What we know:
Chain A: It is found in: Cell membrane. Chain A: Residues 112-308 form the ABC transmembrane type-1 domain. The complex is a heterotrimer. Chain A is mainly α. Chain A has helices at residues 2-7, 15-44, 49-54, 62-72, 78-90, 104-137, 142-157, 160-174, 187-216, 219-226, 231-249, 251-268, 274-283, 287-315; strands spanning 96-97, 102-103. Chain A is flat. Chain C has a domain at 99-232: MetI-like (MetI-like fold, Orthogonal Bundle), CATH 1.10.3720.10. Classes of the chains: A mainly alpha, B alpha/beta, C mainly alpha. Chains A and C meet through helix 2, helix 7, helix 8, helix 9 and helix 12 of A and helix 1, helix 6, helix 7, helix 10 and helix 12 of C.
Amino acid sequence: MSDRARLVPRRRVPPWARFVARRLAAGLVVVWGTLTVTFFALHLAPGDIVDGLIGPGAAATPALRDQVIAENGLDDPLLVQYGRQLAQLASGGLGWSYQLNEPIERLLGSQLGPTVELAVSALITALVLAVLAATLTAGRGRVVRGAAGLAELLMVSMPSFWLGIILLTVFSYRLHALPSIGADGPAALVLPTLALALPLAGVLAQVIRQELESADGRPFVLTARSRGLGATAVLLRHTLRHALLPLTTLAGFVLGSLFGGAVLVENIFTRPGLGRVLANAVGSRDLPVVSALVVISSAAFVLINTLVDVLHPLIDPRLREGGTA
Amino acid sequence: MTTTKTKTKTTTAEATAGDTGASVPGPLVRMEGLRVSFPGAPRPAVDGVSLAIGPGECVALVGESGSGKSVTSRSLIGLAGARARVSARTLEVAGADAAGFGERQWRAVRGRRIAMVFQDALTALDPLRTVGAEIAEAARLGGTAGPDTAARVVELLTAVGVPEPEARRTQYPHQLSGGLRQRALIASALAADAPLLIADEPTTALDAIVQAQILALLGRLKDEGRGLLLVSHDLAVVAQVADRVLVLRRGEVVESGPAGRVLSAPEHPYTRMLLDAVPSGRPPARPAQAAPGAPDAGEAAPLLSGRGLVKSFAPGGPRALDEVGFTLRAGEALGVVGESGSGKTTLARIAMGLTRPDAGEVLLRGRPWSALPERRRRAERSAIRFVQQDPYASADPRFTVARIIGEALPGLRRGERARRCAELLDQVGLSADLLARRPHQLSGGQRQRVAIARALAGRPQVLVCDEPVSALDVSVQAQVLELLDRLRRERGIALLFITHDLAVVRQVADRVLIMRGGSVVEEGETERIFKAPAHPYTRALLDAVLRLPGADGADGTGGAHRAGGAHGTDVTGREDPEQDTEHVAGQDGEHVTKGER
Amino acid sequence: MSTVTALLDRPAAATARRGALLRSPARLAPLVLLAAVALVLVFPGMFATHAPEATDVAAALRPPGAAHWLGTDQLGRDVWSRLVHGTRLSLLIAVGATLIGVGGGALLGLVAGCGGQRVDFALMRVVDVLLGFPELLLALVVVALLGGGTVNVAIAIGTAGVPHYARLVRGQARLVLRSEYVEAARVLGVPAWRSVLRHVLPNVGGPLVVLASIGLGSAIISGSGLSVLGLGPVPPEADWGSMVADGKDFLQTAWWISIAPGLAVSVVVVCTTLIGRSLQLRAVR
């Protein structure tokens, strides 16, 4: 990749802009690849495509079948259909759900908000918890670290749906402190956020703590301490930055675990959102909705990773200037 | 750590902090009977070390890995490690009793009273911060930053001979050359004007020419009245600046005294062994003639030869190798010398048929070699074998010694193979008991011997050795070099010996090839090159070789004085920091003019 | 799985200090517990106190007690006995999925890692795209295409794990192939295919076993997750996840129906994770 870039004649485009453009182009290829794979998987999968599009949930009357065939141009050659789907996507259309009798973009648009709200609040919670836990326990005595390790292990090993059920049982049904279902107001967000954030916090805390501890043995820390810098200052000024760096490479994983977790958490807490839509669509085999979600999720992944790639050199000077040194 | 104690200690520390170190009549630090142990270790890491350092004095701690030299030096600033148990009869830092120091008092000492310089500035400076930020941090902690911190940073960078300090200040460690980085690290250590500087292997990561310059800088700091504790494995480095030397072995001082005496008339056998092991640049005692059975060197057809070799790793990029040729005759030892980036390793890999040259050809026994497809080359591989730099990396960690060597003995039956393995181990001076061990159960020297035994398995005519001793402790280095030399003498195996170390090459090679920036700058008989170098770069390299006092060919004062005028010369334009070391000798001219004078 | 691979992907983090959690009793306990679980799996009859399908409406929604150790569900079925009998399905799905993931991943990874540059490029782009998806989403897509049920859930989770294993194997293979000891072998005249057998496979196998043993835990979580969504085994067959789903609507009155199987999942996952980690530490040393 970089070799080829060097061969391209230089224009007066700032390097970072070229970098971003290249990343976005690569990302577009990924989204296109995803779309292609889902398209052909859908059309070449065993079973009649007409039934697949309609799904078992809607009554496949002959009239509806004819309508589906006509609307989707299923009599056209596959490649023509494929081209049409690309064009449709380019203009922002995601298709039609026959089961819900609704254009998919509208369906997803209405459900996007609650999921983003949940994911963002869970992400922030997880980061705060993880950084706190890691900085407070890194390099401490065996007892503290052992306890922290155990807590992290439990967080990581607990399925989020189970965590959600425990939270529901304790806080909603026993203590009646927080609402159990719905998405109205901040109170309804607390329990789902925790159910989603705690397992993630467990993973992140492990990573940060290990990074902190390994950074602690590095020469520049010794140098900083030999200047008379105190342990807390070393942590804040030097090691924490190093420990947070690798988190950027986990961005894709974090996004995935948030969305994957949301599917279950939204289900347990009967919250509206994309996760519920997906679970329902899979359950009723509403393939147009599933493939639309796949494409959207790959676009989100590409966006996040591009963002990370752009931010990474800003945090780590070693990655600037096209990787010299 | 009790609080009452902490408070009283702070006052003592602060009371003494008012004086400037130079005017204190007593020593800057004094320790007696230092003992450092780590829980779980069978014996203490340091046991009974005593030393004192005064202003303008340089004390050197010398030892091989695991001798406890670094732990000793770190105990002086309370950084021996969280788990270390430190005790001493006397531990005085800047006139205060440091035995009961808590973290707070130590922090008052660090940087202000005692500053530290570590080995590799690339890792010893925070890679995420500019060198200016690092130096400023040190200045601020030391209270010397003043109203204009940036100006103070520039002042410090200037003091250690960094050119264009304004520009360097805003750069990151990885953007600077090795020499400049190390200077910046030293600048950060000087920021709080500590009267005592601890330098822990300060030049080990550097090329020879830059190493001499950094040592000269340290020497100057000493002359300005700073105390210096130099920690090093390298006696030649120590000889340049040290006034007194302590030789450590397994945490104990085996010998100590004035540097001149210890280095010229060592009393303890271990010191003598270390000194003998320093590749001193002495000419070989043996006659440099071909081994028995080998054809007369003068007439023989070349065993391995290359001509017009070109290699670049990026299309259109810089050439790692540019029109290089060489000839190795049977039984001969050819040394290839160069600093990092000179292309010497690329040459070795092309000779081994591991890298394909872009142009040019290597011939083995007069027949095509580098041009062969791997399949046909395989049949002839037993004639030419490779000894790599890191014997740990070059052995499959899951394999036993028997399997490692056995891999070179295909087609033998089990019993026969075991017998051959034992025989090969014997040839490299190892016992057959080691056959069942795995690499991590061997010492560094044993590993490299196993690698050599493996190389001998096919009864090769050529051994290509790529820095075969640079990963080893000094005393082990000498033994491995001796082994290679013996193999050459007794069995007529030709050596293509790649190294950065001129002193090593003088012991081993009949002829030498000096490489720089991908080209051969000089070639000739070893003794001729050492006595009458023709090319300025060769002269610069030779000047940078650190010698022990009294060693052959040196004038007793060592190389540092000659390099002494070279402060701040590892300077180049900003545009290409990686090439610095190469510009140094050629373009800056300090060394070159010295040599021509 | 993704939780775990995220950690394993980064060897620096994975090679944390040995110890901390893994003093020897901690190393032994998960083995003993898993052995017990295996016993339950093979001989459920020995441990169950009731028939798992036996309904008793009169005894519905009883809290845990002497007659029913973990209480009863809405149909009066004994939760403990259902848990015992659900072990087999839960673990079979996880083990099957892991085998599919490891097998597919190892094949893909080896071909990419040891094959030519173009093969590697093509395969790894596909893997990269797949890695872009949340694992659960990938599994859900497969379920959407194939339909639910025990076997399909195992296939779905296994498929979703393939890219993770493939990347590990490919990375390791590359690492070993570029190592100095494989170079040393080449210099000795050892052909490339033999180096793959002799050096690459054994050196890839270790990390793969480690990842698989930890991945088993994630497969259990994913499997039960799909069951919670109602996509798993078809009733009356039940694994732990579908038991959680069954009890979900009765949390207010009968928390034990869902909590007990969830606890079982967590315990098994903790065990496999611990075992995986101690294997990992041993490999690192």
